[in-house]
């Protein structure tokens, strides 16, 4: 980040905090409604309706079933034409068998808190600009934001922010890896395994050979790269040459640039295994999770608001440099796709869970009062940061300049 940026006045900060505080009980009910009715990937009908109806009843313009997904929505609000556009992402999908063990109910209500705080400011002060709440389904395993991005979501926005609960720490930014999943299908030829094996083409052999070759590749991967996979099907009976085998694999790397370098080393393994066994193979690449490109300008401002005005002790909110060392995440987030389209951050807030995300302990904490209050505080900070995007030209220019430089470095900038 360049020069230290001016923060909003004490009166404006108080107005945003009080707006969210006045709505805390209603937001709590929304959070619990989502939590108590967990819905899986791309089936989030209740959550989508609950949030989009709530915004529409406040006077927002809402479109449902947007950007290629039935349970996605885009809600917009403005009072004057012109100005910049900021977006808050809402998530509301749950995990199979574990409900909201990743706390997406908190993400949704934190973003709603930010949105209504800015709504109030724009109305009370007649400020130009547009606020967007983007309902984003299928974060867990589905890469929902990647699908939405490929269909035009977030284009033309000036900034997009969201926040995610974590076990016992908070950060102003989130760093994740890039990941891409592929479903592999080998097609062979069935035959009697004892009477006429020469007539068969063994799809089980093909996928086992591919799996073994991937194991050989692993020892030559760069630090931070990894490959995971499992065999889903490889035959039904021992006396029949398997004519079909299927597996699911994923490749990970620190950045999309590195992931693109890994893919050409990984992909030919399956064609070679098919050729060696006389089979054919199909590769279906799905659910791309791009790495999160955190915008330092936004993240530094988020931290300043938290520490200077919202009651967080400095030691509870690490610096950007400390965050990169201490809290570089081995997992993935589909927010990465947003961060390659416009400047963004995915901050993190502690919910004091007894275990990591995707656990029973984390699920229990996600419905608690402490987690709710921290989600709203994160919503306050995100509202203030996005108000800076709308009203502070110098801040917005610094943010955009940094984004352009990051995209050029990634080979993704298109003027």
TrEMBL record:
<dbReference type="InterPro" id="IPR052030">
    <property type="entry name" value="Peptidase_M20/M20A_hydrolases"/>
</dbReference>
<dbReference type="Pfam" id="PF07687">
    <property type="entry name" value="M20_dimer"/>
</dbReference>
<feature type="domain" description="Peptidase M20 dimerisation">
    <location>
        <begin position="177"/>
        <end position="274"/>
    </location>
</feature>
<dbReference type="Pfam" id="PF01546">
    <property type="entry name" value="Peptidase_M20"/>
</dbReference>
<dbReference type="InterPro" id="IPR017144">
    <property type="entry name" value="Xaa-Arg_dipeptidase"/>
</dbReference>
<comment type="similarity">
    <text>Belongs to the peptidase M20A family.</text>
</comment>
<dbReference type="InterPro" id="IPR002933">
    <property type="entry name" value="Peptidase_M20"/>
</dbReference>
<dbReference type="InterPro" id="IPR036264">
    <property type="entry name" value="Bact_exopeptidase_dim_dom"/>
</dbReference>
<dbReference type="InterPro" id="IPR011650">
    <property type="entry name" value="Peptidase_M20_dimer"/>
</dbReference>
<protein>
    <recommendedName>
        <fullName>Peptidase M20 domain-containing protein 2</fullName>
    </recommendedName>
</protein>
<dbReference type="GO" id="GO:0016805">
    <property type="term" value="F:dipeptidase activity"/>
</dbReference>
<dbReference type="InterPro" id="IPR017439">
    <property type="entry name" value="Amidohydrolase"/>
</dbReference>
């Amino acid at each position: 980040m360049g020069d230290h940026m001016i923060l909003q006045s004490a009166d404006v900060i108080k107005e945003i905090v009080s707006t969210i505080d006045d709505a805390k009980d209603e937001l709590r009910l929304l959070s619990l409604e989502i939590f108590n009715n967990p819905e899986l990937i791309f089936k989030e009908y209740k959550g989508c309706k609950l949030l989009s109806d709530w915004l529409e009843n406040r006077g927002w313009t809402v479109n449902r079933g947007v950007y290629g997904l039935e349970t996605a929505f885009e809600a917009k609000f403005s009072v004057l034409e012109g100005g910049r556009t900021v977006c808050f992402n809402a998530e509301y999908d749950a995990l199979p068998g574990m409900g909201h063990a990743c706390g997406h109910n908190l993400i949704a209500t934190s973003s709603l808190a930010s949105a209504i705080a800015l709504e109030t400011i724009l109305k009370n002060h007649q400020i130009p600009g547009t606020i967007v709440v983007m309902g984003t389904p299928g974060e867990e395993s589905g890469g929902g934001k990647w699908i939405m991005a490929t269909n035009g979501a977030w284009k033309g926005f000036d900034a997009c922010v969201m926040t995610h609960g974590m076990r016992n720490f908070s950060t102003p930014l989130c760093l994740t890896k890039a990941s891409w999943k592929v479903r592999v299908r080998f097609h062979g030829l069935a035959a009697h395994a004892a009477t006429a094996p020469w007539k068969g083409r063994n799809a089980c052999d093909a996928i086992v050979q591919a799996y073994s070759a991937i194991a050989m590749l692993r020892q030559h991967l760069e630090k931070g790269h990894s490959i995971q996979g499992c065999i889903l099907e490889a035959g039904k009976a021992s006396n029949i040459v398997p004519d079909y085998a299927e597996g699911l694999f994923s490749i990970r790397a620190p950045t999309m640039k590195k992931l693109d370098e890994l893919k050409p080393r990984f992909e030919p393994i399956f064609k070679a295994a098919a050729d060696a066994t006389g089979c054919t193979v199909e590769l279906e690449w799905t659910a791309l999770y791009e790495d999160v490109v955190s915008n330092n300008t936004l993240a530094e401002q988020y931290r300043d608001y938290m520490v200077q005005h919202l009651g967080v002790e400095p030691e509870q909110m690490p610096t950007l440099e400390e965050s990169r060392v201490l809290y570089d995440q081995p997992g993935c987030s589909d927010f990465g796709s947003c961060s390659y389209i416009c400047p963004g951050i995915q901050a993190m807030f502690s919910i004091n869970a007894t275990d990591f995300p995707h656990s029973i302990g984390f699920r229990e904490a996600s419905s608690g009062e402490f987690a709710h209050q921290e989600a709203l505080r994160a919503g306050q900070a995100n509202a203030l940061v996005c108000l800076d995007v709308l009203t502070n030209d110098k801040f917005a220019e610094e943010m955009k300049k940094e984004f352009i430089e990051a995209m050029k470095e990634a080979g993704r900038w298109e003027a």
